[in-house]
Amino acid sequence: MLTVGLTGGLASGKTFIASCFQEFGAHVIHADKLGHETLARNGEAYEEVIAAFGGGILHEDGSINRTTLGATVFDNPEQLEKLNNIIHPHVFRRQEAFFAQVAEVAPQGIAVVEAAIMIEIGSYKRYDRIVLAVCPLETQIERFIKRDDATREQALARIEHQMPLEEKRRYADEIIDTTGSFDETRELARAVYVKLGTEARSSASS
Fold this sequence. Notes:
CATH superfamily of the largest domain: P-loop containing nucleotide triphosphate hydrolases
Strand content: 5-15%
Oligomer: single chain
Number of helices: 10
Order of helices and strands: EHEHHHHEHEHHHEH
Helix content: 55-70%
CATH topology of the largest domain: Rossmann fold
Structural class: alpha/beta
CATH architecture of the largest domain: 3-Layer(aba) Sandwich
Number of strands: 5
Distance between the termini: 11 Å
Radius of gyration: 18 Å
């Protein structure tokens, strides 16, 4: 089995590439979804996060208001680090369980984790290969504005909190440019998937 970290920047196309990989036969999970699950009322991080950030982050029904929590940590590195230190160990344990499951059912398969900040936090080292989705800055901004009904200022604020895509290129084993159409990007993703599949089969037989 080959473990793959799929990353990129804001609206760079990584989620679309993840869907392509899944369509081609890869086993895919999304780190954001795992993080949200840990914050659910029955999640591993629920009590810890409330203890760290207080009851002001809760909805009336007792669930964590992720928007409020996000606003609390967005422009505060110390608070963000505190939150990450609570959530990430639980997310990584869920990822390891996912890898173990894939290894059992598909020893020659590809296990993909899609995550935005794996390079920033150093977790990219956990994977056999890193795939990076890239596109021009203006394309990121336009996509985010359209997707989230946001402003240009909001897009730039989000992007400024991420490592530039050009810098992330240094960490990538494979780079997929998503600037073109969905069909063009799908074919680029297919070529990378075929290469990863060859590596997965080779590692399983060695």
